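Exercise 7.
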Amino acid sequence: MRITILTLFPEMFEGFKNSSIIKRAIGNNIVEVNVVNIRDFTLDKYKRVDTPPIGGGAGLIMKCQPIYDALMNVKKDNSHVIMMSPKGKTYSQKDAIRLSKFEDVILICGHYEGVDYRIEKYVDELISIGDYILTGGEIPSMAISDSIIRLLDGAISEESLSEESFTNDLLEYPQYTEPREFDGKKVPNILYTGNHTAIDKYRRKKALEETIKYRKDLLNEVTLSKQDLKLLKELENNETPKWENDAIEKGHKFIHKK
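Solution. The predicted structure, written as tokens, is:
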């Protein structure tokens, strides 16, 4: 896959490209990330890429010509062109999955007070990462690129992807590390039982609980199974069910070793 980012501030992407999963994915030829300086394409002798808006108003607007020429320089027949914009659809994990299936994605970063409206004619979609104001499209383009790259084959393990928040329309269940007890708080006994069927069921229940607590709206996006409905009933009654007690009882020898 190729991701090309058109920006006025290419230096902002140095750390992004040279860290963690992104660096490894680039090094393993899983993805090619190119950062193109829009300013290199301006025809203005002073290298300006922006002017005051026609009709008056505050700030500066990015001009058509440099963006258009930069885009045409990198665009291919199979390119999917995205521009960061507050008018765009709010980005979600479903969009990340959708975009990860393209072979070539181009992200256009606006800056200053905005971009000449006529550029929208040359893009396939507008995307926003939320209802708040940023200085430019660079941070959103990093967020979108990161969310896409980690989904590509070989970037990270399939197991890690399958259990992440939003993958199954729920938040992820709580995770723990050693020691078993820290500051008076203990790791739940069931996680030490070795009963993976019960552990999976417990984790599903906790994922439902976390989603209800922090993002109840997400439940509207998921089809709940009969087991999910039973787990929700257990949460509502604040009870420790028989299946959980049985698993802990049978796995007590493993629990006591901890």
